[in-house]
Amino acid sequence: MATSMVVDFEKGQKALDSVFKTSNEAKAEIAKYGKDTVIDGTIGTMMDEEGQIIFLPTVKKEFLSLSSTDYVSYAPIIGNEAYHKAVIAECFGDHKPATPMRVVSTVGGTGAIHHLMHNYAEQGTEVLISDWHWGAYDQICAEQKVKLRTFSMLTEDCTFDFDSFKKEVTYLADHQERVVILLNTPGNNPTGYTITTEEWQQIIDFLKAIADNGENKVILSVDVAYIDYAGDGDKVREFFALFENLPRHLLVTINYTLSKGFTMYGLRAGALIALSSDQDVLDEFTTIGTLASRGTWSNVCHPAMQTVVNIMNDLAKFKVYEEERKASYQMIEERAHIFESEAKACGLHILPYCGGFFITIPCQNAKAIVADLKAKHIFVIAMANGIRVAVCSMPKRHVKGLATKIKDAMDVRA
Ligand SMILES: Cc1ncc(COP(=O)(O)O)c(C=O)c1O
Asked: pLDDT of 205-225, one tens digit each?
């Protein structure tokens, strides 16, 4: 037996995230065979048509012109007020709900989810997440000793499966006091699905009733990592207005990140935003959030946060930044449309793409198919119930023909 020094809880865990692992394999092949031979549809970072990572020009310029103090000084643990205001302005746009809110700065969106699980999900209990979800949720929950319960996100005709959602929420409400729900929308990773405003209305009405039953505490968390790449910026924010008149025992949190919208993936900054009608709940959110930060990463990347403050405080800069971001989104959309239309033409069934960085092909034996594709220098991600293709990271010339190649590989394994 291999020697082990770690605590019992951590024993036997597998080290590397499969997305980063596969992405590293693709990078190694690109170094060996060149970027024209290798198709890399693994990771959620935007690449331009030449295969270079995109750093939105306005963000880059602002970041590179900060003062030395902004680069190296500690930010307040919770983040400063200017950053909180900037995050609220960008996140909610014209649909900021009239509900008191607070912000705690976090290390990316991952940090926000960490704080959510750490502070609001009791160890040993279950939290509810859709069956189609970002793989990192599993690891974050495991680290917090919280179990995942899933509901089926999509019906056969690809709308939000409210019946399944209701069934699983009801189960949790019957078995434990806390009902913690994490939904990733708009532009869900991995499916690209966006919950519509009408579907949101149904969700909120139902959760308000649970929170009012006198027995449960409901924490609804929305991971909006892809909000700036999920369609019309105004339309995709409409659902925020539904987070008003919240009952005392319904806390809503928004997981926000600078990784995607501001293309500062590696700079590691984001925020957890809390909305509640109860002042005590918000005060507690601030105190406990600050303590959790102090006990984990302490402060968040100061220059990343300052860059956002400077852009959001200057309307002219913000407008230019918005245009650049829109252009990047259009680039992803064009790639997605190529994939969608070719998939249709060759009979490859894909999940409905509303926005975001990925397209998903539901299938059973994804691991084997993905291994076969690797042998042909095509790198995509195998999930338990499908294959994820990162249209954000592939030039159009690599997207063209890809649906057919995947369909052929699937037919071989059928
Ligand atoms: C669903 C989802 N949420 C949040 C994030 C944000 O992660 P980060 O910690 O890099 O900001 C990602 C990034 O891939 C994601 O896919």
From this structure: 999 999 999 999 999 999 999
Ligand 1 binding pocket mutation candidate from 256, 257, 300 (most atoms within 8 A of CB): 257
The total number of structural domains that make up the chain: 2
**Residue identifier of the C-alpha nearest atom 14 of ligand 1:** 44
Pair (114, 39) in one structural domain = no
> Same domain for 159 and 32?
no
**Cα separations in angstroms, 261 against 55, 229, 269, 325:** 10, 8, 12, 7
- Flag whether the pTM goes above 0.90: yes
CB of 259 within 6 A of ligand 1: the answer is yes
Does the beta carbon of 276 lie inside 6 Å of ligand 1? no
End position of a domain, from candidates 269, 298, 313: 313
197 and 309 share a domain? Answer: yes
Residues 125 and 256 in one domain: yes
Out of 105, 107, 189, 224, give the residue to mutate to test ligand 1, the one with the largest number of ligand atoms within 8 Å of its CB.
Answer: 189
Residue 63 lies in a domain: no
Tell me the residue range of the domain where 357 lies: 16-57+318-413
Tens-place pLDDT, residues 139-163:
999 999 999 999 999 999 889 999 9
Q: Which of 284, 313, 342 is a domain's end point?
A: 313
Ligand 1 pocket test: pick from 106, 256, 259 the residue with the most ligand atoms within 8 Å of its Cβ. Answer: 259
